[in-house]
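Problem: given the chain below (226 residues), write out its structure.
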Amino acid sequence: MEKEAISQKQAIIIMSTFIIGSSAILGSGTKAKQDIWIATIIAMVMASLIYIVYGRISSLFPGKNIYEIMDVLFGKVLSKIFLLSFIFYAFSLGALVIRNFSEFVRIVSLPETPLCIFAFSAVIINIWAVRGGIELLGRFLSIFFPVYIIMIISVTLLSISLFNFDNLKPVLYDGINPVLSASFSIFTFPFAEVVLFLCLLGNLRKNSSVYKVYYRSLLIAGTLLL
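Solution.
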């Protein structure tokens, strides 16, 4: 069976969408208050360092995903122990995302509808996407993501008259500690979560750069979150 492959551009779009994800709804690092933009920039710098590690792992084993890499490094038995932890993390994160989006839709649109209806619908959509494969997801997001960007830019431009940059002052009013604490929160959610992409970057087409995927995704998603 031929292995599915995605282009570098598709991988960047998928990762950018993943990073933005539920953080666009829930937010992260609110402890920093008006200094959250500083915390986000610090978190992006922290993420750029850990992405070196992620990129190095993928580049040392081109064409292999994390499961195959674990087998090579630790053998069949020990690798399964690590992979179970990795899979548990992936499922836990997926469950949290489904819960967050389900609650958001219910609160905003249909407050009388049971939460399980939204969650079940989200699960069905995810199963359909997984069955379609990574190529289908890449093609779909290649169409959807530019529309999403246009929507964000349009909303921003239309509301620019409401901006009040005085709300960003005073800078570091509560000191640096809340900003550092918030930056770590933003680093862990959502930036560090792309460790899951070690499962997918083995599907990159030849001559694609995993480093470009990580860093361009960080730049795009980080800018949108700012």
